[in-house]
Amino acid sequence: MKVPVVDPNLETKVPGLYLAGSIIEAECIRVAANQGHRIAKRVALLVNGSGPAPEGVVDLLIAGAGPAGLNAALTAKALGLKVSIFDQYFLASTILAMPDGKIFEPNYKGNNDPGEGPLWFESAPIPILHTKWTDQAREYGLSINDNEPITNIIRDKDTGLFEVITSCRSYSARFVLLCIGKSGHPRPLGVPGEPELAYRKKLHYRFRGPETVNSKDVLVVGGGNTAAEAVVGLSKKNHVTLSYRKGEFERLTPKNKAALDELSNMGIIHVMLNSEVESFDEEKTILKVNGQPIVRRFDEFFILIGFELPIELLMKIGVELKEI
Ligand SMILES: Cc1cc2nc3c(=O)[nH]c(=O)nc-3n(C[C@H](O)[C@H](O)[C@H](O)COP(=O)(O)OP(=O)(O)OC[C@H]3O[C@@H](n4cnc5c(N)ncnc54)[C@H](O)[C@@H]3O)c2cc1C
Measured from the CB, is residue 28 less than 6 Å from ligand 1? Predict the structure, then answer.
């Protein structure tokens, strides 16, 4: 797996270009938001003393209005920086895409970090979180450039200024924070039959809630919280099989682990550990379970095995990547 190289200040090898959030493996909101806050504080320090930004240039341009970007933008505003923030969709779009009923917990994956910066975050369902964050953006006079993805970032070696190119136009900035998450790039399994089923809308890489799937035989592939939460939701009205390539679940929250154990013990779901899909077909899916091939038929498929980095964009921008 490739990850971007950043220094302890979260600056990339491109001077003045910072990364924060899940793009550098921050696995929960607090860690992502705290990183954004620290970067904005650092930029304020660097900008201080070098005079106001020239006409038409912002001090800090932020790509991505998730928790990392929003906390950075609120902090930058509070510190008097000229800041602008862009999102390919809209504020907190990753969070809004999660299933209805999801409660965001600050102690997700055992995290206990205290919050830094203005961003409000307590245990809350999606609508509350979204309303609070929208209100905070308004209070701070922050206007988010919606539906405007960043497509390239070029640093002028002579002036040190960035030209940031979006789908609409280009902007000039002294510092750039890229915190675009990974949500746009779900990881495929890469086995035969997968693209065809995805094309026919039988195979999905996102789980948006159980409402659309009813009385079906469903295969969920994955061993993380996304897969677990999908299984729990889908099991209310469907026959669900969960396939995971490892022998035990290592990354689940205690709540999700307990929910899976309970459903499995009651025979409501079928958990196949040490299993891997070999090929997909609407009529027969071939799985290898403990090395033995088995054939099953499913109506719908959810491949929830995480997200890939936006590698192409990172390489174009000049961010160094390392294999881990
Ligand atoms: C199933 C699941 C459950 C979770 N539950 C919890 C929980 O309970 N508690 C918790 O603390 N954490 C939880 N997390 C983790 C949390 O969602 C992430 O840590 C957090 O969203 C990371 O924030 P971010 O700002 O880095 O990225 P994101 O929230 O992904 O935001 C990135 C933003 O960038 C935008 N973007 C993407 N590409 C571009 C582009 N080219 N130009 C401009 N904008 C772009 C996106 O539209 C998005 O709005 C969960 C994650 C998952 C998958």
Answer: yes
Q: Name the pLDDT band for 197 (thresholds 50, 70, 90).
A: very high
> 179 in ligand 1 pocket by Cβ < 6 Å?
yes
Tell me which residue has its CA closest to atom 42 in ligand 1: 149
pLDDT (tens digit per residue) in 38-84 = 999 999 999 987 888 899 999 999 999 999 999 999 999 999 999 99
In this model, does residue 139 exceed pLDDT 90?
yes
**Which pTM value belongs to this model?**
0.85
pLDDT digits (tens, 9 = 90+) for 79-107: 999 999 999 999 999 998 887 788 999 99
- Cβ distance 67 to 92 under 8 Å? yes
In the chain, CATH 3.50.50.60 sits at 2-185+308-323, 194-303
Q: Which fold has domain 194-303?
A: FAD/NAD(P)-binding domain (3.50.50)
What's the CA-to-centroid distance between 133 and ligand 1, angstroms? 14
CATH code of domain 2-185+308-323: 3.50.50.60
For a ligand 1 pocket test, name from 28, 91, 311 the mutation site with the most ligand atoms within 8 angstroms of its C-beta. 28
Q: Is 181 left (phi over 0), alpha (psi -120 to 50) or beta?
A: left
Our answer on whether the CB atom of 25 is closer than 6 Å to any ligand 1 atom is: no
Q: What is the pLDDT of residue 61?
A: 98
